Please model this.
Amino acid sequence: MKVSIARRLALMFALAAVLITSTSAVLLRCSLKQSLDEQMHNELILRHSVLDPLLSKYESPEDWVGVHQKLDTLTPSDERVLYWVLSDDSNYSYGGAMPDGQARSQQPDGFSVMEMPDHHCPMVLLTKTIPAMGSRPELRFIVGLDSTPFMGTLGNFTRALIFTSALGIALAALLGYWVSRLGLRPVRRLSNQANSLPPGDSKQRLETEALPSELQELAVSFNGALARQEAAWCQLEGFNANVAHELRTPLTNLIGQTQVALVHDRDLNELQDLLQSNLEELERMGAIVNDMLFLAGAESGQRATELSDVSLYEEASKTVEYLEPVLFDKHLNVVIEGDMRARIDRRLFHRSLANLLQNAARYADPGSTITVSLVSNGMQAEVSVSNVGEPIDSEHLEHLFERFYRADAARARSDAHHGLGLSIVRAVASMHGGRVFARSEAGCNTFGFSLTSESLA
Model:
């Protein structure tokens, strides 16, 4: 069951009110009870202070007749206050036996409580010992005060506390719900604004100026998500268009060549040539599909796993040796500068470096030298390939590692290369926790990638 935020906040307000009112009510009740106990104790002390001297100065039994009359006079008809004088001599006793049947002559002086028959509340007692004087023995003088009026006041106050606390909690819950609904209006407006965004228009954004500061951060984050979605959508549209364009050419060639071959009878040699041409187109399409699958895995966060501690110079030399026929055709020399050890996926390293070397060989001036640099830059290892060739405009440098991007379609030779080589270099760098870079300065074009400190040996 889903509970709205307003109801949750109202419940929290109610719980807070319960905690506050309960604590306050308990403290107030305890304070009142302590005050009432002090009042009862003070009254008992006052009555003792008046009667103790009277009982102390009389010694003979004849004098105690007046004491009995005095105590009878001071005892109210409602028996709210009672007196007892306990003594071993009956001539000096008053009030009879204690109602609870206890031998209180043996108990120490001070305050105590005694349950009374037919009374809901106990009687508070104050006992004092009056020393013997002359023929009069030691006396135990007890004054009892009925606590019913005091406990009645405490009970009325407790009921009033319960009622006011319950009312306060209910009001806190209702006001909390109202305040929550009022405070959440900007959230509802933001939700309505998000729901009203028209479909198909990826440039729409939420308005953040009129929102509270707490919601502005949420709206800005949401707008950022919309911007990333727009960029991803545009990238996907461009990717789909590029894939369709790249696959359309070999498919068109396959269809056209097959249709032409079927128009007339062909001998075996012509059919073999046709199959060979079709195989080349199919291999190109297969390469595009394999590269796209590799890029999809890299962009999903896949990391290089088959790591080994190698010398980058030795691995770069193996790659150059593998591409020697391509370099020889254009009369290009390759120089490898620097060396370091790193933990890399050798297969991926060869693939990315081979793509950089093929790219350099494609656009390098014939007879020039290609330089492979292996540089340690702080906590990073940078692998770069430089060639002398036609300068590249700065507006193209940041896009050259995008899929199917070509700075010059006329010189891209799309019939032989499908525009994913540098994208694969970026994917390999990402799988090793690095990045890619490109520079074009003074007629020298440099492309490369780095390995982060996590990949360094």
The two ends are 55 Å apart (CA to CA). Residues 409-415 have pLDDT under 50 and may be disordered. The first helix runs from residue 5 to 57.
